[in-house]
Amino acid sequence: MAVTEIVITGAVSLIGTIVGGGITYFTQNKMNKAQRAKEEINEYRTLKREKMSYYGEILRLDGELSPLDEMGMGSLDTKKYVKDIRPIIYSKIYLLTSEMIDHLRKLDKKVELLLNYPYVGIEDESEAATLYFEFIQLVENEIKNWH
Predict the structure, then answer these.
(1) In 3-state terms, what secondary structure has residue 49?
(2) b/e string for 52-85 if b means 16 or more Cβ within 10 A?
(3) For the chain, what is the radius of gyration of the CA atoms?
(4) Within 10 A of 51 (CB to CB), how many other CB atoms are there?
């Protein structure tokens, strides 16, 4: 065998190996991207289900133990809110939207004021009730938007 044949045979083998490796790399890369996309979709769906279940729990709790007065507005039973409702809401606060969290922060400040200064004006009681009512409306809107 001549040196030229050995070089050509070696070059053809090398080129075949490089081309085969390249094809394998691109095929695996494409399959990995598809798998990652599928996993991301599943994670999104799981998170969405968890979020909707949590929102449903908040609405169930509001229906059973609403801290609003019988008319639905006007004043907020701060003790019931702090004891029964707030712990559930805060247990998975990371599932709430930023707008919901902003409402909760405002509500908590108002509730703290009402608990620590019992002779605060009716306006503060009304504002706390409104903030709670608006929070519940935000939760309901998120559920409606999901469907």
Answers:
(1) helix
(2) eebbeebeebbeeebbbeeeeeebbbbeebeeeb
(3) 30
(4) 18
The set of residues, in sequence order, having a beta carbon less than 8 Å from that of 93 and lying 6+ positions away, is 101, 104
pLDDT (tens digit, 9 = 90+) per residue, 61-116? 999 988 887 665 578 888 999 999 999 999 999 999 999 999 999 999 999 998 88
Q: Which helix (H) or strand (E) holds 48?
A: helix 3-65
Mean pLDDT of the chain: 86
CA angle, residues 77, 55, 48, in degrees to nearest 5: 160
Hey, what are 44's tokens? 């999104």
In contact, 74 and 128? CB cutoff 8 Å: no
> How many angstroms separate the first and last alpha carbons of the chain?
75
